[in-house]
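Exercise 7. Predict the joint structure of the components listed below.
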Amino acid sequence: MHAQFNVPSTIIVAGGASQQLAAQAVRLGGRRALLVTDATMVATGLAARCAEQLVAANIPTTIFSDVQPDPTDRNVAAGLALLRREKCDLVIGLGGGSPMDAAKVIAVAATNDAPLRDFAGYHRIPKPGLPLVLIPTTAGTGSEVTKAAVITDTEREVKMMMLDAHLLANVALVDFELSLTMPASLTAHVGVDTLTHGIEAFVSRKANALTDPLAEQCIRLTAGNLLTAWAEPGNRPAREAMMLAACLGGMAFANSSVCLVHGMSRPIGAIFHLAHGLSNALLLPEITRWSLRGAVARYAQVARGVGAAPADAPDESAAAALPAYLETLNARLGIGRLRDFIKADATVFGQKLPAMAEAALASGSPQNNPVVPSADEIIDLYRKVW
Ligand SMILES: NC(=O)c1ccc[n+]([C@@H]2O[C@H](COP(=O)([O-])OP(=O)(O)OC[C@H]3O[C@@H](n4cnc5c(N)ncnc54)[C@H](O)[C@@H]3O)[C@@H](O)[C@H]2O)c1
Ligand SMILES: [Fe+2]
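Solution:
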């Protein structure tokens, strides 16, 4: 076996965990904080409540709220400039994957003087970043516990995947109460992202004994709670289970890998600006159908975990039931076909496909898939999900 496992040294999972922000900031020795977040968190007052906690602990705090969904190199540059101007020595990321990823990269950009492009890929960040606390409000990307960040290179229209242990938070505060305000469509999109993390971590060529139990529990919790959280936003047990599933899924995929779904999803996000979870969801059933033959026993285990096949079903028939289960889940969550969400016609989509297939392969994720596709096969798969 070969396994390397990196997670934050402190992960606190509890309703109300975000109220421990100031205590954790003090423990990390922070003297001036940059709170990286987005406009929604300012509008709901959550950003101000976090800042007040820090100020009460004698940590003056500057709020940077210009992170857009699917954060860009420009968002990171603006946040870094503010951090330098205000002489901050501690970074807090508050929000969904977008503010958390921006916070991670701002924290390492503060100590590594290099263009962001140099950080793209695996283990390309030379020095540790500033101390970092992450607080997720979606359930979710799991970014609070991962050593990954995704930042769009605006010039090249590419989502740069960065993976390095220096991107890990020192502290993750996982507080499901912050997710209670998610509207139904967001709950659906980020929830299928979580399920995709669990499934891809489990079927990946890099799956290992440390990540398997986390991935399986992520899958079971998501299957058991996503529809309830979607239908009943105030259902606390379902929200709590989904927040935990997202955290487990993050630990699993970051120490195994994501595969073809994420590989093909990033180019859709970079070019057509679809939300990350939504583009994953649109791909997941068809990519699963195509990949089954590479890992029948593993997909069978996933199918049993979500309840798509009985516990005693043979591998072949259990695995074969999974794509239809995923299609039904999408349908119940109101997730249709790719063409319903892209503001471009089939011709424009077709013209972009060769570059999208190339970007998917360049990310490295498809190479971990149970069946490794060629560029032409990726193009065919994009056409199938259109
Ligand atoms: N680093 C990683 O390990 C990792 C893993 C998966 C995805 N990602 C990245 O994460 C990003 C997507 O993150 P996301 O899906 O969490 O969405 P997001 O952070 O982009 O947020 C989407 C929208 O939801 C709003 N929102 C967030 N929390 C809310 C709440 N509690 N109530 C109401 N509205 C809320 C935000 O303000 C925003 O408008 C993508 O850029 C993706 O590439 C990173
Ligand atoms: Fe994801």
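Discussion. DSSP finds 16 helices and nine strands in the chain.
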